[in-house]
Design brief:
ten-stranded mixed β-sheet; about 325 residues; alpha/beta
Length: about 325
Amino acid sequence: MKHKTLTAMLATCALYGMPVTAFADYPEQDIRVVVPWGAGGGTDAIVRKLTLLAEAEIGSTMYVENIDGGISATGVNQVMRAQPDGHTIVALTYDSIVTIPWQDMLPGYDMDNLKLIARVTSEPDSLVISSDAEYKTLDDVVAAAKAAPDTIRIAVQNIGGRVHLALLQLEQLTGAKFKTVSYPGGAGPQKEAILSGEAIGAVTSLGDFANLLEDNTVVGLAEFSSSPNPTYGDVPMAEDLGVDLQIGSFIVMAAPADTPDDVAARIEAAYKAAYDSAEFQEWVANVGVTPDWLGMGEVTAWSEQTQTELFGQMDALVEAGVLSK
C-alpha cells in the first residue's frame, strides 16, 4: 500500500510539474561543492572555510572538488548540467559571470542555467611586486615600464580574463607597457612565477597572495579599490596615487537553475550562518578579502548590472584596439 501511495504521489508531481524534491528530506546525500579553479588559490581557501562551517548547519557532508580549466568554464558547465536537487553547487567568480559570457567561449554556457544563491565576498585586484625588485612604488614600476616597454614581466592568469583586463586598463591609464605573461589556473601559478623569478610581479587580489605578503616575499604597490583593505591597510589605493582604476573579483554560490526554491533557501541559510559566524569573520579579516553578503533576493540583479557595466567597458577597449575579443 505504501508503494502504491508513493507511486501516486510521484505521478501527481509529474502531472503538475511539481518538484519531487519537495517531498524528500533534503539533503539526502553528500553535497558536492565545485570550485572551478585549481587548489591553493584564494577562492579555494575561502570556499573551503565557508563550506566547512556551512556543513554543520545543513546536516550533511559537504565536500569541495576542484575542477580547473577554461578560466572556470569547465567546472561551472558541469554544474549547469547537474541534477537540480541541491546536491551539486558551485562557486562563481568574476570570470564565470563576466569573461566567459562576454567572450561567448562555450556553447550552452548561459547564466540562465544557474540559480544564484548568495555573494559572499568582494576582492579588489592589486599590483604586487617581488620584494627583491628595485621598484618600491607604483610610480617606480610605471616609470620603468614607460622607459623600457615590454620588459617588466607581470603575471596574469588568463589572457582576456579579469586580471589581464586590469593590467590593460592600468597601461591605458598610465601610458606604461608591461610584458604580460599568462599563467592559467588561478593564483597558484602566478605565485610560482614570482618565486621562480619568471615574473617580477602580478595582478591579483591581495587575499590570493596572503601568504607571500605575510612573509614579505611580495609587497603590494596599489589596490584597485575605492576603500582601504581591512587587512592590508598599508597598501595604497590606486585612486590615491592618481590612477582611477577599480576592478576585482567576488565569490557567488550558485546551483543548477531548476533547483527548488526551498532547497536553495536551505543552502543560502547554511552559508549565511557560516558567513555570520565569529570564526569566519575573524578568519577572513586576516586574508585580505572583504566579506560582502548579498542573498537570493538581490544577487541576481547585482550580477546582471555588473555584466552590463563591464561588458560596456570591455567593448570600449575592443573599439580602442586595446583588447581583442
